Amino acid sequence: MRRRWSRSSRVYLALSLGLAVAAGLMVRGHVEQAGAGGAASGSRTPVVVAAGDIARGSILTKSQLRIVPIPEAFAPPGALTRIDQAAGRAALTDLASGEAVTRTRLARVRAGPVASLVPQGLRAFAVPTSLPAGSVQPGDSVDVLATFGTGGAGQPHTEAVVEGVEVLFVLGGGTTGGSRGSPLALDAGGADLGSSITLIVLVAPDQESRLAYARAFANLEVAIAPPPEPP
């Protein structure tokens, strides 16, 4: 005699079959989505990347660069597609090995050694100091203080002209200046600086005028600011 299924068994079987069909449809959907994603990213474009670590201020050579094909969807904005578009230009930021070289990370074509490292909207200004050689490095932040009235014209007073400006170059003291870790250098000897230290700092246009006035009518001193807090 054929065994009859109980009502609860039939319900359980129906639920099992339904879940199996739903699982199959879900798997099929994931596979189709993966295939569509693969097709979308299948088209590749050449992107120029750093062949090794590159310091800010370095003049890029062809040997420091290489081409990597990546999916077009993942190419960063402003990415370069040919090595000759980057070779001979200065790096505005440090570049890690394998990092994409984009237009915004390179100096303008035919820019000078200082102008190539000055971001848009800022200026490079020279500040003479009495700091000892080796006390400041490119990349440090400094405050510039001005003391007016030391020559007898009015009551002497000191005020901060600019605060927290970045040092781009350090000249004098028997050293040449350049950005940290960079082969770029300036001829400090040609400026007849002797053992004194002159800092090339990055300032905004309004800070530039204040510094020029203070340099003409006051004694300048430089205070070294602490490094920023880690994130």
Account of the 3D structure:
By secondary structure, the protein is α+β, with helices and mostly antiparallel strands. The protein folds into two domains: 44-105, Type Iii Antifreeze Protein Isoform Hplc 12 (Alpha-Beta Complex); 115-224, no CATH class. The protein is built from two helices and seven strands, in the order αββββββαβ. The protein has helices at residues 7-40, 205-217; strands at residues 44-50, 65-71, 123-129, 141-148, 157-172, 197-203, 219-224. The protein has a five-stranded antiparallel beta sheet. β4 (141-148) and β5 form a beta hairpin. The longest helix is centred in the N-terminal third of the chain and has 34 residues, at 7-40. Residues 179-185 and 188-193 have low confidence and may be disordered.
Strands, helices and their partners?
Layout: H1 7-40, E1 44-50, E2 65-71, E3 123-129, E4 141-148, E5 157-172, E6 197-203, H2 205-217, E7 219-224
Task: Provide keyphrases for this structure.
alpha+beta; 231 residues; Type Iii Antifreeze Protein Isoform Hplc 12; 25% strand; two-stranded antiparallel sheet; single chain
Strand ordering within the main sheet: 3-6-5-4-7
Q: What is the rounded distance between the termini?
A: 78 Å
Number of alpha- plus pi-helical segments: 2
Return the structural class. alpha+beta
Reading the helices and strands in chain order gives HEEEEEEHE
Question: What overall form do the CA principal axes indicate?
Answer: elongated
Structural domain tally: 2
Secondary structure: number of strands = 7
Q: Average pLDDT across residues?
A: 78
Q: How would you characterize the largest beta sheet?
A: 5 strands, antiparallel
Provide the β-strand percentage band: 25-35%
